[in-house]
Design brief:
Strand order of the largest sheet: 4-5-6-7-11-8
Oligomer: single chain
Distance between the termini: 11 Å
Largest sheet: 6 strands, mixed
Organism: Popillia japonica
Radius of gyration: 16 Å
Number of strands: 11
CATH class of one domain: Alpha Beta
Order of helices and strands: EEEEEEHEHEEEE
Protein name: Endonuclease/exonuclease/phosphatase domain-containing protein
Helix content: 10-25%
Structural class: alpha+beta
InterPro entries: Endo/exonu/phosph_ase_sf
């Protein structure tokens, strides 16, 4: 249903259109970037602005109802230069709200935290936070690979791992892989 991709403000949505999908985007208010999400055209959904918090990240939330379940999908980009403490505070508010309001939640994005580096205190703090809200991070291989490094920055967090049919990391020509 969803793919994370960086968005540049001067790129028109029509130039990244995919047949059978609607493209939702939230452009960065700062320098470059933004977030976007493809949703199948058959799914009736809405942008959920109530979860937008000022803070150290860019985010977009889409909500929809499938069968009798309320579902939320959030897309995040956390710039590496932003305040980690401010991000964590805002992210915890989001987690607490969506956990109460929706039956199933998926959050994906570039969090700029290398989860392969579990000796990093910020990584452990982030993992403890998502686990405290019963989210599971399902990507377990590098999502950014260069000649010198391999890091896991692009994550998919789910509230019910048993509902995940498949996931993968696909190589890209750009800096980050598709998740």
């Amino acid at each position: 249903m969803a793919t994370l991709m960086p968005i540049v403000i001067h790129i028109l949505s029509g130039s990244v259109s995919l047949s059978g999908y609607r493209f939702y985007r939230r452009d960065s208010l700062g320098r470059g970037g933004g977030v976007g999400l493809y949703v199948r055209s058959l799914i009736s959904c809405r942008v959920f602005d109530d979860l937008l918090l000022s803070g150290e990240c860019e985010q977009l939330w889409i909500t929809f109802r499938l069968l009798h379940f309320n579902i939320a999908v959030g897309v995040f980009y956390r710039p590496p230069s932003g305040s980690f403490a401010a991000f964590m505070s805002n992210f915890e508010i989001n987690l607490s709200r969506v956990s109460l309001m929706y039956d199933y939640v998926t959050i994906l994005g570039d969090f700029n935290l290398d989860l392969l580096n579990d000796s990093n205190g910020t990584v452990n703090q982030f993992l403890a936070l998502i686990e405290s809200y019963n989210f599971t991070q399902i990507i377990n291989e590098p999502s950014r690979v260069t000649a010198a490094t391999a890091t896991l920055l692009d994550l998919i967090l789910v509230s019910d791992v048993d509902r995940v049919r498949s996931h993968s990391v696909k190589p890209m020509l750009l800096l980050h892989c598709w998740i």
